[in-house]
Amino acid sequence: MNEWCELDKKHFIHPTSSIQQQQEKGPKVIMESGEGIYLKDIHGKTYMDAMSSLWNVHIGHGREELAIAAAEQMKTLAFSSAFSTFSHKPGIKLAEKIASLAPENLNAVFFTSGGSESNDTAIKLVHHYWRIQNRPNRRKIIALKRSYHGVAAASTSATGIPEFWDMAGTTIEGFSHAASTYRSNTESAISALREKIEAEGPETVGAFIAEPVQGAGGVLIPPEGYFKEIRNLCDEYGILFVADEVITGFGRTGRMFGIENWNTVPDMITFAKGVTSGYAPLGGVLVSDAIHEVFKLKSKGTLFHGFTYSGHPTAAAVALKNLDIIESEGLVDHSHRMGKKLLKGFKKLKDEINIVGDVRAVGLLGAVELVKNSETNEKFPQDLKVAPRVIEALHERGVICRAVTYEGIDIICFAPPLIINEGQIDELLTKLEESILEVKNDLVV
Ligand code: PLP
């Protein structure tokens, strides 16, 4: 471990890490292999990957079919360009496949290599759309507070978690954030958005972007009816609605796309993560037929936007095999069923342990909040670090979850691989209960 640790400290700058802490301690875990919902570190300790790593390993680890799909594609055509007038079969097949899975009106795809690129692409496409519609002033983008849309220039600015703006000390002009439904309701969230649109000037707003379920913000699930109201409001003001399905896409919420839980159809969908289950980097933006028509009719000259790896043939072949597995193994319905079981277990914990506050799940995307008083939702003092301690206790028991803490709120997030079975959900719930009780007992002492 020491040798790996030292090399890591010397050369590896980790994403979203404390560089200082990393220099002192090095990585906590160095993973070596994975199978199903489990990961194994270099000492042979096994962990249940209850976050699907970064909410993305939908079909679980170690699936040989994907390795074979990648190897076969690499042997045939590892890479060739999709720029301009060039194309290739895996890219074409994948675009067609994703269009067939998406809501009916979304049939054209622009490929990227991940979620941040997808959201930046969507925002540039929004700007392009309004420019060619002779409405160049519609440049503003409204997002939600506590949303996460990525770390490229526009997606950082769209993100509603201020810590992400700190690194560069600023964000791009023209982005603002409205309150979500968290600790609130549809009515106030919709009026907050209406006020924001009015304050910005409706004629200057190009799009509203939101995650169907806010993931990094703490798995914040909107109430029934919220997105229908969002759709109506966007239509009323002629604003495009972009659904960021980077976490919620491809079965995570028990539906193929998260927004389908609320019977709402957006103008664009951004995706990444689960489209390949992380076996290759790939993302994209699905655009509606209406927008695609405008592009076809009015977009003159070259669309000066594209990544070397847009539609990467090997990544596309991996995505196709991954989507094939999601469909043939019925993982979307399975996610729905297992999500119900998970939520039932969370509710039981809430009934039995007085520091368990709100619990929620939609498909296999869930959260448990920890509070000082579950009647009033009174928070623990922030310096007690209750959620991080529970995460640590889970880690000791070989379970990887994620804590979200802000403004004194303690949330434990869950997003296990969609292949998780009933016995493994019981294992997760048992270890969660033990971990919460351990921390609770510690707090009393
Ligand atoms: N959008 C959402 C909702 C995400 O959760 C993420 C990543 O977690 C992103 C966008 C950014 O994706 P990536 O990290 O692939 O750039």
UniProtKB/TrEMBL annotation:
UniProt key word Ion transport: no
Q: Please name the InterPro entries in this protein's record.
A: Aminotrans_3, Aminotrans_3_PPA_site, PyrdxlP-dep_Trfase, PyrdxlP-dep_Trfase_major, PyrdxlP-dep_Trfase_small
Domain of life of the organism in this record?
Answer: Bacteria
- From which organism does this entry originate? Halobacillus mangrovi
Mention one GO molecular function. Answer: pyridoxal phosphate binding
Q: To which protein family does this belong?
A: Belongs to the class-III pyridoxal-phosphate-dependent aminotransferase family.
Q: What is this protein called?
A: Aspartate aminotransferase family protein
| A matching Pfam family | Aminotran_3
Which SUPFAM superfamilies does the UniProt record give? PLP-dependent transferases
Which of UniProt's keywords are assigned here?
Answer: Aminotransferase, Pyridoxal phosphate, Transferase
